Amino acid sequence: MSTYPWAAGYIDDGARPQVVTSRFKYDDGYTLERYHATGGYEGFKAALRRAPGDVHEEVKAATVLGRGGAAPPAGTKWGLMPAQKYPRYLVVNGDESEPGTYKDRLLMERDPHQLIEGCLIAAYAAGLSQVFLYIRGEMPLAHERVGQALNEAYAAGYVGRNILGTDFSVDIVLHWGAGAYVVGEETALIESLEGKRGEPRLKPPFFPAAIGLYGQPTIVNNVETLSNLPWLLVNGSAAYTSIGTQTSPGTRMVAVSGHVNRPGVFEIINGTTTFRDLLYADEFCQGIRNGNELKAFVPGGGSAPWFTPEQLDVPFEGRAAGAAGSMLGSGAIMVMDHTTDIPSAALTLTRFYAHESCGQCTPCREGGTWLMRILQRIVDGQGTKADLDQLLEVGESICPGNFPHASSSKLGLEAVPFPYKMTTICFVGPSAYAPVHSALTLFRDEFEAKLVEPAVPSRRQIPVTAVH
């Protein structure tokens, strides 16, 4: 059983289905020996015994939703590539950088062969000739583990030419990212892979499935998304869809941080587990620290609109979260108890997004910095009431019409359209405004308590003299 300090990041009580985390309990779960001993590469072998189109249809039937943010079904996404256009590429988005998110890092550190097997299944099913594993630069252990696993997979004949005696051949390239948040956006990641500055491309025409890496059809999938495929090919789509709900089948990894008694990464049943279950159940986070009261929580990574205790019974399901006014995003939940200074919490998140702007779009480059500076002024006790209106005005210039305005605290959230309407190419700009709007809408009184309204200077009395 695992004794490494970093193993504490994952919580397993054995009570739930384990699609992607079954090997986390082993110290050597990252080795090929352990992977073979626990059924590793059997899904890939099963795929090779079938026609590529059949494997593709199996993934489509399972409705394997993307686990990176937007959640498009993987099988549907693969089908968007133009027919008979080759070569085609698979790019694995391992640049996990959304605030509060650390599930993909654990998958790469503790079960890298599962990711590699998922890549091989996707490449076979979709006719992809080369795979690029793009891993965030601040994850050295993930690089080490994936690199070691890749060498083992090549040596064992799972990667390379004429794999396992078949006509199927594919190479996998490991690429070290430079640590820019924006390259988590798929077209910016592709730009970085091509050796250029990591900046998002305009869509259209640059939909990766049509015009992606080196101008060729490209599928960009998340680490957790691909890690689902080995289990699926062994057990079948019927077994996969028997877990969760019709619209959100399978399991999902969530990372919980902040003011809970037991933070960590949990593999939960998709679509049925509520936020109340996750934060308060003994099998998960076991309640708020020190017996404190829950004040607010961010349900889908730092860029998601906030929830309050009124949304605790919303299930962890994309449509339900959207109808309640937020999104599940990267699967990161950040919890704030009643001792939290809300303006300071909003500033922390906004500062991150302002810093991570690539600078390509003026509303993001300038607007994010304006939001940060105004918030800082308020937190420092030097803000005025006009600053509150200015925050909303700047936010509207970045993503007009997305977030309902409110002038009093504790108003119920309204559904937020996703994707956002925005004046920027990608979501970094709106991400800087999301925490500002949530904090100011739900807890306006806390902002007002920090304001300093300067006294209106009295008019200087000018003596009136008679004009002769």
Description:
This protein folds into three domains: 18-241, Rossmann fold (3-Layer(aba) Sandwich); 248-338, Ubiquitin-like (UB roll); 341-452, NADH-ubiquinone oxidoreductase 51kDa subunit, iron-sulphur binding domain (de novo design (two linked rop proteins)), CATH 1.20.1440.230. The chain is of the alpha/beta class. The chain contains 18 helices and eight strands. The chain has helices spanning 32-37, 42-48, 52-62, 74-78, 103-110, 112-126, 140-155, 186-193, 223-227, 229-235, 237-241, 275-280, 318-323, 342-356, 362-379, 385-398, 428-442, 444-448; strands at residues 89-94, 130-135, 171-176, 218-222, 251-258, 264-269, 294-298, 332-337. A four-stranded parallel β-sheet has the order 3-2-1-4, sandwiched between helices. The radius of gyration is 24 Å and the shape is globular. Helix 3 crosses helix 6.
